[in-house]
Amino acid sequence: MRSKNHYLENKKVARKIILEYLHFFAALYKVKFRKVAIRNQRSKWGSCSKAKNLNFNYKVAFLPNDQRDYVVVHELCHLIEFNHSKKFWAEVARTIPNYKEIRKKVKSTSLR
Ligand SMILES: [Zn+2]
After folding, report:
1. How far is the CA of 76 from the centre of ligand 1 (A)?
2. 47 in helix, strand or coil?
3. What is d(CA 14, CA 61) in angstroms, rounded to the nearest whole number?
4. 7 C-alpha to center of ligand 1: Å?
5. Which of 40, 85, 96, 108 has the most beta carbons within 10 angstroms of its beta carbon?
């Protein structure tokens, strides 16, 4: 149960870090979100609901900066475009022009 302990020990600090970047990018995009949940999922880095609630894996806080920013921006852009359309990616590219390359790195990072 090492990973569960790691989660419990780091959840608070992860939330603080993730919220800091969320607020920064939310101000840039001029979007508002509702609740933020920090979880320890096995398969997801983050998600966004239609009710504007955001959900992040606590491990996002410990990713390299560019990857952390990408995950945060990705979920925030779903508050503008609730899909993965060209418009959605154009929003992501406003702050992360090289998102394609960063996205690959995030996808290849195991959550297990
Ligand atoms: Zn998405």
Report:
1. 9
2. strand
3. 5
4. 23
5. 96
**CATH at 104:** 3.30.2010.10
Instruction: Output Rg (C-alpha) for the chain, integer angstroms.
Output: 13
Q: How far is the CA of 47 from the centre of ligand 1 (A)?
A: 7
Q: 75 C-alpha to center of ligand 1: Å?
A: 6
Residue 71: how many CB atoms within 10 A of its CB? 23
Domain that holds residue 45: 2-108
- Number of structural domains in the chain: 1
How far from chain centre, in Å, is Cα 102? Answer: 13
Q: Tell how far the Cα of 88 is from the centroid of ligand 1, in angstroms.
A: 9
Residue 23's identity, in one-letter code, is: H
Helices (H), the chain: 2-29, 65-77, 86-95, 99-108
pTM of the model: 0.95
